[in-house]
Structure formats: structure tokens, C-alpha cells
Amino acid sequence: MQTRRRFIQIVPVAGATLMAGREALAQAKLDANDAQAKARGYLHDATKVDPKKQPKWARGQTCANCQLYQGKPTDAWAGCPLFGGKQVAGKGWCNAWVKKA
Ligand code: SF4
């Protein structure tokens, strides 16, 4: 009986821990200093893009209006498959930007 009670106590805690772990993974924000982010010219703020270094950039392009942005255009952060689903800033930008269809 004691073992069963212990099991009943542990299962919800383990489940909650797993859920929290999965959420943390899904919500990890992309580090702008990450090598892959730098290679793509990613910045959290598209207004800071240097057009000389990033000739593909055009005013008005942001993650929020990119085809790959997995959130709503109004979401401050959302996943991007280019960076393994890590969260990118809606106001961000990288040189893989594709106009949302
Ligand atoms: Fe932002 Fe699009 Fe680049 Fe992803 S691919 S980081 S959503 S501009």
C-alpha cells in the first residue's frame, strides 16, 4: 500500500517536470551571438541591420512578416524552423527572410 501511495505521489510530479522541460525547450530564445545566427546575420531588432553588410535587407522586413515565422504577426517571439524551432523576435530579421505568402 505504501508503494502504491508513493507512486501516486510521484507520477504527477514527474509529469509536471517533463511538461515544464518540454515547454522550456520549445520556448528557448535564439541567442543572437550563436554562430548559426551570426552566419545568417540574425538580429533581434531589424532596425539595427547594416544594409552595407546585408544587401538583401529592405525596410519593413521583420521575422513577424517572414514566411518561416511560426507565430502570429503580433507575437513578440515565435519559433523559426531555420534555427531548430528556437524563438526569434518578431522585430528581428535574418538574411533567409522570405515574404509571407
Ligand atoms: Fe526571422 Fe524569417 Fe530569418 Fe526565421 S527565417 S529568423 S523568421 S527572418
Compact description:
By secondary structure, the protein is mainly alpha-helical. The protein has two helices and two strands.
Helix content: 25-40%
Mean of residue pLDDT values? 85
Instruction: Determine the strand fraction and express it as a percent band.
Output: 5-15%
Instruction: Report the order of strands and helices.
Output: HHEE
Rg from C-alpha positions? 19 Å
Q: How many distinct helices?
A: 2
Broad structural category:
mainly alpha
Specify the biggest β-sheet.
Answer: 2 strands, antiparallel
Strand order within the widest beta sheet? 1-2
Number of E-type strands: 2
N-end to C-end Cα span: 60 Å
> What is the approximate shape?
globular
Low-confidence stretches: 13-21
Query: Which small molecules are bound?
Result: iron/sulfur cluster
Give the topology.
Elements lengths: L1 H25 L8 H5 L37 E3 L7 E3 L12
Antiparallel strand pairs: 1-2
This protein binds iron/sulfur cluster.
Iron/sulfur cluster binds next to loops.
Q: What do you see in this structure?
A:
Mean pLDDT is 85; it is low at 13-21. The radius of gyration is 19 Å and the shape is globular. It contains two helices and two strands; from the N terminus they run ααββ. It is 30% helix and 6% strand. It has helices spanning 2-26, 35-39; strands at residues 77-79, 87-89. A two-stranded antiparallel sheet has the order 1-2. The longest helix has 25 residues, at 2-26. It has 101 residues and is mainly alpha-helical. Bound molecules: iron/sulfur cluster (SF4). Iron/sulfur cluster (SF4) binds at residues 42, 63, 66, 68-69, 80, 82, 88, 92-94, 96-97.
